Amino acid sequence: MASSPDTETVGGVTFELRPRRRTSTRKGWICLRKNREYTDRYLSLAAEFAGCRMVEVGVDRGGSTAFFTKLLHPEKLVAVELSDEPVEQLTDFLAEHDRQGRVEVNWGVDQADRAVVPRLLDRAFGEVKLDLVVDDASHFLAPSIATFEMIFPRLRTGGLYIIEDWSNDHLLERGLRASLDTDPQGSSVRKFASLTDGAEQPKTPMSVFICQLVIAAGFHPDWIAEIRVQDGFCELRRGAGDIPLDTPLASYTGMLGEWIFEGRLS
Ligand SMILES: C[S@@+](CC[C@H](N)C(=O)[O-])C[C@H]1O[C@@H](n2cnc3c(N)ncnc32)[C@H](O)[C@@H]1O
Fold it and tell me: Would you say 78 and 109 are in contact if contact means Cβ atoms under 8 Å apart?
């Protein structure tokens, strides 16, 4: 029997939680590409971040942008998305629910663009610090680090930087392993074999970044006051220390931290 849709209604708008889909099952509902745990975490943060200054990285069809608009009533939300095709559904939603134009969606922007992203943030926020940042974009290592280096220093003390789905590659491995039993002749098993016998060299997963952030929270607690990891959801609470713009991740982790990931230690 098909399970009933998981929905959350916020400010009169119904969001259907479908992390692996891009459309809702019912007209009038908005597809939110987040699971129940992630959604509940945002609901629990709603009071703290009501009226926030926010950056969202990775918009897709705009379900989450609509969700944050209704849930947080941001004073300003700047969103960036690699696709350069504006999504009509989101444009229409914002025309109805964001009459004051507080939400700005920037299509065709790469999260790793070190010229464009700072320019957008300077234009929208000037010197004013951010409260909340959500990175749900590429889930690749280098662009995720670039975004962090550009944006994390711009958070206020106590502000929150959230990275979603950092564990995707590990979940993929679990899925491939499971298919060894269920579909031994299938293409996923061939894919798994090519990874394990060294025929294909996998990319370094972005989980390395999360491990570096754990070290950073130890080396620089004045910069990262708290790190919270649950499932594929990672939250960093900004400490009170001054962080120069564009500080490289290596400065957050220190020399020993760098050497760990270079394999230089005995
Ligand atoms: C998982 S979807 C975002 C889902 C959305 N946040 C939600 O919850 O409904 C990831 C999005 O990130 C975008 N993306 C991928 N690489 C990117 C990059 N380098 N810069 C900006 N956006 C990127 C993709 O085009 C895609 O739309």
Answer: no
| CA 202/CA 199 separation, integer angstroms | 10
pLDDT digits (tens, 9 = 90+) for 63-74: 999 999 999 999
CA atoms of 219 and 239, how far apart (whole Å): 12
The residue among 173 and 232 whose pLDDT is bigger is 232
Fold classification of 7-165+219-262 is Rossmann fold (3.40.50)
Pairing, β 76-81 against β 53-57: parallel
How far apart, in Å, are the Cα atoms of 133 and each of 150, 155, 190, 193?
A: 11, 8, 38, 38
Residues in contact with ligand 1 (CB, 6 Å cut-off)? 32-34, 58-60, 63-64, 80-83, 110-112, 136-138, 143
Contacts of 108 (CB under 8 A, 6+ apart): 81, 82, 83, 84
DSSP code of 133? E
CA of 236 to the centre of ligand 1 (A): 20
Domain extents for the chain?
A: 7-165+219-262, 167-205
